[in-house]
Amino acid sequence: MSEPARTPFVASLPAAEALERLPGSGVAWLDAARRENLDAFAAAGLPDTRVEAWKYTALRALAQRRFAHGDAQAATRAVDAATLALPGVDGPRLVFVNGAFRADLSSLAALPAGLSLRPLSQALGEDAEGLRFALSHRYREAGDAFARLNAALAGDGVVLRVAAGKAIARPVHLLFAGAPAEGDLAWHLRIIVELEEGAELALVEHHVSLGAQKQLATVVSDVVLRDGARLDYAIVQDAAEDATLIRRSQLRLGARAQAAMHVQELGGALVRHDLRAELAGDEARLATHGVFALHGRQHVDTQLAVRHAALNTVSESIWRGVADQRSRGVFRGAIVVAEGADGSDASLSSRNLLLSALAEIDTKPELEIYADEVKAAHGATVGQLDERALFYLRSRGIPHAEARAMLTAAFCRAVLQAMPNEALREHVSQLLLAHLPAE
User: Fold this and answer.
1) Quick one: residue 34, left, alpha or beta (phi over 0 = left, psi -120 to 50 = alpha)?
2) How far apart are CA 65 and CA 246, in angstroms?
3) Residue 413, pLDDT score
4) How confident is the prediction for the chain on average, in pLDDT?
5) Range of weakest confidence among 5-9, 11-15, 183-187
6) Terminal CA-to-CA distance of the chain, rounded, Å?
7) Dihedral over Cα of 1, 40, 5, 185: its sign
8) Predicted pLDDT of residue 22
9) Measuring CA to CA, which residue among 349, 252, 378 is closest to residue 310?
10) Residue 355's closest CA among 305, 402, 321, 308?
């Protein structure tokens, strides 16, 4: 195996001088964090399958590619704004095309009272010190390569805050679009979300394709819910079929805070999502509902880690996976009930459906308990469509493709029905079924 510094991917990294052109350059702590993370990435390179967190996702092909980091034309590229809309999502909107903020496509006029929504580049110019905690982190774990890359090179993203006691009526739409461009591009964005005490928000993170492209995108999110805050968070991932998308979402819940996450993984050639949540305050509650639907040679890897760190916390995780043709899905669900987190209630269910003899799904539930008086359960299954149910539908005159779609939709319903936004739920359901081959 070649040294990390010799791989084309690492060799194509921008020089350290390029960091001086990023927003916020000149802020001493930010410059230091960017340089340290870039140096750490260059020294270690991409992780291989000997790193436990990447055991099922090989990056050899990615390591042989060269990327230009950033797209000089993204800020002016023609985009039809009508293609960006989502049913049931009509609130404030922040749009990025190939990692570049697009004010012309965003909707930031007349924000409701209590909501602050800005691109990261603007926030760095106005109050860099207020972002220090989120942006000064040094990533040191072996599997943190893309978090390091993002911390070094992300020059833009989202800063969203909701004031204490404020309930934002309409959902906020964060849209990240990949558009065709010359050559292989890489772009990197940060999302910083804070809900203060008693605040309420519905948030939609939307990844969409504006045409065929093979870009690499990294997105790192830091979400903090103060005491009593409530967040409904939907992630709709429908990237281009040849795109590589690596995401890391970190949630921290204070006392009595409640978060519900709805994750749909549909597009992309290579997709990875590290979703980490800490229930840090007493009586915090977290629900995660996710589904992936794969075809062709897609590879989607979800790493879910939930940590109960306070008294009487509750987490419920329900995930479904569907794989067709030669695709591969990976799901690891880890729950840790830390010492002192007495009275915690944690459950995890991972059920998966193979629609082809060549498809593969690897699922790995994990449970660690270090506290007393705890309720905890986890389970995982991988199977195929029920032939008896399929035969029954066929015997009633339903064509094979339609019967197959009906059973697949029913399998995923446990996840999709948890979305409270009815119009968005119906749209995502149709996207999921359209994404799978008819036969």
Assistant:
1) alpha
2) 16
3) 83
4) 92
5) 5-9
6) 40
7) positive
8) 94
9) 252
10) 321
Q: Which two tokens stand for residue 296?
A: 């062709």
Label residue 40 by pLDDT band (50, 70, 90): very high
**Amino acid making up residue 355:** L
**d(Cα 161, Cα 163) in Å, to the nearest integer?**
6
Per cent of the chain over pLDDT 70 is 97
Could you give phi then psi for residue 422, rounded to 5 degrees?
-60, -45
pLDDT digits (tens, 9 = 90+) for 390-428: 766 777 778 777 777 778 888 888 898 999 999 999 999
